[in-house]
Design a protein that fits this description.
CATH class of one domain in chain A: Mainly Alpha
Shape of chain B: globular
Distance between the termini of chain A: 28 Å
CATH class of one domain in chain B: Mainly Alpha
CATH architecture of one domain in chain A: Orthogonal Bundle
CATH superfamily of one domain in chain B: MetI-like
Radius of gyration of chain A: 24 Å
CATH architecture of one domain in chain B: Orthogonal Bundle
Strand content of chain A: under 5%
Oligomer: heterodimer
Radius of gyration of chain B: 27 Å
Order of helices and strands of chain A: HHHHHHHHHHHHHHH
CATH topology of one domain in chain A: MetI-like fold
Structural class of chain B: mainly alpha
Helix content of chain A: over 70%
Largest sheet of chain A: none
Number of helices of chain B: 15
């Protein structure tokens, strides 16, 4: 950086302190809850003194140690949170695979077609993207009850894939647009059909875009609350609706720590995901935007 | 690309969207025009030694048979839209005649469930969207002016509020502002009022929900702006500096215009997402103080009695509002495409 563009000290100080403030706002709630999840309820919600949750005064009295895994034991074993976790793994895996398979094919075609209907398709996808998913759920319930489709994991997977499609299409469309047309066109000049060109030329170079889109599909399936809680029967619930049901039952029993432990358990995989895929997430967020 | 090849490439995706997005829309509109069957009531005469008494009972079998035969319910036309839980035409008319000035009319309106939800949804969208954009912009500017080594960790921690499941993120905040949580205690101390509770006060609850909204979506605006800042033309910046532009003027006249198209993009995405505000209301158990359109639908769908037609009517109204919200953007996209050709 040249001398002329170097920031004066007070500007740098202002910027840094503003950032530190924001970082505390962004990260502190998570660290606080992570720390508190190893305490007993009397410490996590401390009537007497807020510092109790820091030092675990009551936790020491009740369990003997400063930390306790009771919340985790209660949630995962007693309330069978592991079942919900398993369901989440199944749902996420299939949603990501199916929506990427359909999405890459359609996204590729949309990026290569010059006809007007390709644009209309994208515009409709944008309209569909804008609709709150819960409005669609009210349309699903009656037919699903009538045809006995309600409550199964497979139904929810297909529904999540469909809700996810508009977003996937837009994202993959913009990624495929960045792959030069000449690449597949030269393959077709050499005698490949369109599908062969896609299979042998495009697939090997498309992975960065597909991985990024896959991350966002995963997030959608993992984070969804409205669809999963309405369309899954109780034993098929994934983690997020399960936490919601904890809130209904455990708060009365005084076992709010189960919910806290479950909340931390849900946050942990996301934390790891950001750790490893930060670059892809950032590129995905800006994919549609930077080109204006 | 040939029409036929194009068709086969997009077929699976389009089929999914037609089956699970377009057809459910048809189903929603249809359901909203029918109402649940009334229970079949039969009059039974019980004759005992002390004379005969007439009693009315619900004929469970006949009701079930009727529901079996016509699962949609009976035709209701636009009645559901007009009832008290939706547009409440007659109630609004009454309120308009009886109201003592506009504020009084507004208060009556906010007591009707649909208008209460609509009022909060619109206020939330109108306040959270600009605040998100402003906060995101300042974070991006700040990150851009600190040492390079600090940028990676900053981005990492900034992503957390956005990536973490909305239901979970809002629960975490909710537990902290609980009267026994650290932030709740802090607020009581600040206001020196030991009985202060966010749960009990409508304005505080609205403020908390909006605070959560900004906290949750500011990272998105930040990331997009940060990427945009990397492509600001350095020559223009330098030229502005030579012409004597101050730091603030350079931001105002070079950086902000460069980021303007990004602002449109962020505003579009944020409008769509804020209008469907839902999870925080569940987590904060805020329904007594604030409901949104999505929450109203969820509330109708859940529980023992699933009020399908009521939920469907609210859904249709929500979709109409989303369409109105988006129409300027859609018209613009359409025009842009026209000029590209």
């Amino acid at each position: 950086m040249s001398v002329a563009t170097r920031r004066p000290l007070n500007v740098r100080f202002l910027a840094t302190s503003f950032l530190v403030l924001w970082l505390i706002m962004a990260a502190f709630p998570f660290l606080w809850t992570l720390w508190g999840s190893f305490k007993v309820e009397g410490d996590f919600f401390s009537k007497a003194d807020w510092a109790n949750s820091l030092f675990g005064t009551l936790t020491r009295v009740e369990t003997g140690g400063a930390f306790t895994g009771d919340g985790y034991y209660g949630a995962w074993i007693q309330e069978e949170f592991w079942r919900a976790a398993l369901n989440t793994v199944i749902v996420c895996f299939f949603v990501v695979t199916i929506s990427l398979t359909c999405g890459t094919l359609a996204g590729y075609a949309l990026s290569r077609s010059t006809y007007r209907y390709a644009f209309w398709l994208l515009l409709f996808a944008l309209i569909f993207r804008a609709m709150p998913p819960i409005t669609l759920v009210s349309g699903y319930l009656l037919p699903f009850f009538e045809w006995n489709l309600w409550g199964h994991l497979s139904t929810t997977i297909i529904v999540l894939v469909a809700i996810n499609q508009p977003f996937t299409l837009w994202m993959l469309h913009s990624f495929f647009k960045n792959i030069p047309k000449d690449l597949d066109e030269s393959a077709m000049v050499d005698g490949c059909t369109r599908f062969q060109a896609f299979r042998h030329v495009i697939i090997p170079v498309m992975w960065p875009g597909v991985i990024t889109t896959g991350l966002f599909s995963f997030l959608l399936a993992f984070n969804d609350f409205a669809t999963t809680t309405m369309l899954l029967s109780k034993e098929n619930h994934t983690m997020i609706p399960k936490i919601f049901s904890f809130l209904g039952t455990t708060q009365t029993k005084g076992n709010v720590m189960f919910a806290v432990a479950a909340v931390v358990s849900v946050t942990a995989p996301l934390f790891v995901m950001i750790l490893f895929f930060q670059r892809q997430i950032v590129s995905g967020l800006t994919a549609g935007a930077v080109k204006g | 690309m040939k029409h036929k090849t194009f068709f086969w490439f997009v077929f699976p995706s389009v089929l999914l969207m037609i089956l699970f997005i377009a057809l459910p829309l048809v189903s929603v509109v249809t359901q909203s025009l029918y109402s649940k069957h009334e229970q079949v009531i039969v009059e039974v005469e019980n004759c005992g030694p002390f004379g005969c008494t007439k009693a009315t009972t619900v004929d469970q079998e006949a009701t079930a048979a009727l529901e079996e035969a016509e699962p949609l319910g009976k035709w209701a036309g636009l009645d559901i839209y007009k009832d008290r839980n939706h547009l409440a035409i007659s109630e609004v008319g009454q309120a308009w005649i009886n109201a003592d000035g506009l504020p009084d009319f507004g208060r009556t309106l906010m007591n009707l469930p649909f208008y209460k939800a609509l009022g909060f949804t619109i206020t939330y969208t109108a306040i959270v969207t600009p605040l998100t954009i402003i906060l995101g912009f300042f974070i991006a500017i700040a990150v851009n002016s600190v040492a390079r080594a600090m940028r990676g960790p900053t981005i990492f921690f900034s992503l957390l509020p956005m990536i973490v499941t909305p239901l979970v993120g809002s629960l975490i905040i909710f537990w902290m502002v609980d009267a026994r949580g650290i932030l709740g205690t802090g607020l009581q101390w600040l206001a020196s009022d030991p009985s202060l509770s966010v749960k009990a006060s409508t304005p505080l609850m609205w403020a908390m929900l909006m605070f959560y909204g900004v906290w949750h979506s500011a990272p998105f605006a930040f990331i997009v702006y940060y990427a945009g800042l990397q492509t600001v033309n350095q020559d223009t910046l330098e030229a502005a500096m030579i012409d004597g532009a101050s730091r603030w003027e350079r931001i105002r006249y070079v950086v902000v215009p460069h980021l303007a198209p990004l602002t449109t993009f962020i505003a579009l995405i944020q409008l769509m997402d804020n209008f469907r505000v839902f999870e925080p209301i569940i987590s904060f158990s805020a329904a007594a103080h604030a409901t949104s359109l999505s929450y109203a639908i969820f509330n109708d769908l859940g529980g023992e009695t699933r009020l399908l037609s009521s939920a469907a009517a609210t859904s249709v109204l929500t979709i109409i509002f989303v369409a109105m919200l988006l129409s300027p953007v859609l018209v613009r996209t359409w025009r842009d495409f026209g000029t590209q050709k």
